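Readers of this paper often ask what the protein records in our data store actually look like. Such a record has a labelled line for the sequence and another for the backbone structure tokens. Nothing more is needed to write down the fold, since each code stands for a local backbone conformation. The remainder of this section carries one protein's record, kept here as part of the documentation.
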Amino acid sequence: MATTVSSQKALSHLKSIRPNDGWSIVRSDDGGMKLLRRSVPLSDVSFLDIHFDGNGNGAVVGVLTRDGSECQVLVSQDGKPVNGVQTVSVSNYEYKTAAATTSATASATRSSTTTSTTTTGEPLSDADKQLMEEYTKYALMAIGAVIALKVLASSMMSILVVLLPLLYLYGLSTCPPIETFDAKKELKRVLRGHHLPDTHPQKPKGVLEEWTARLTATVTTELATLPGYSVEMMPLGGAAVWTNMQVPTANLQCYWLGANHRWYYVGS
């Protein structure tokens, strides 16, 4: 519903002094306005506008003429509906739609924004220039780092493309034959800690400890493998051999990788 500035002010005034009376303003079929209290019109007549005469008698009136020279009092100063027809003249009335006011406000805001934008184009201070230079330097450094990483990745890929075939050929020439894998010998080496680094606490130290470890590993291996064991070997393209040894008696399963003329213990 199209409203006016006066009708909005009048409705706000009535709701402030009589908030429980259910005030509202509606447009009638002929385009005029009617003031309603609890959904009941205060007059059968439609008005050009509803106006709060704050500078006059403090009443809410229905405007009959555009210049406000003829108005009908609808609500008295104390917020009570007026019985009968009382006409007054409102000298300070000006007909203005809410849409026009909004448009004028928006235009003023745009004008103010344009003026503000035009007048704020001040030159940068030395501190601002230095800050801009710092930001530019960091941005260039970041771009350079990204480019360097891309070049490095490309170089590494090129190196891998060259090295992988060479490594594969080396694996083919140094892969130990399957028949050279001695299961008991390799198991003994594992049990006596041959694969452990010298700094490992379980690595035998001295001749006596080494001799004792060898003897213990030999006896343990012979007893564990006496009932039987199994060895599974899987060639890896001819460049290496994956070996799996299972000893059911000792509930043991060990893995080796055959490459570079040797059998490397992987784990168990």
Summary: The first strand starts at residue 23 and ends at 27.
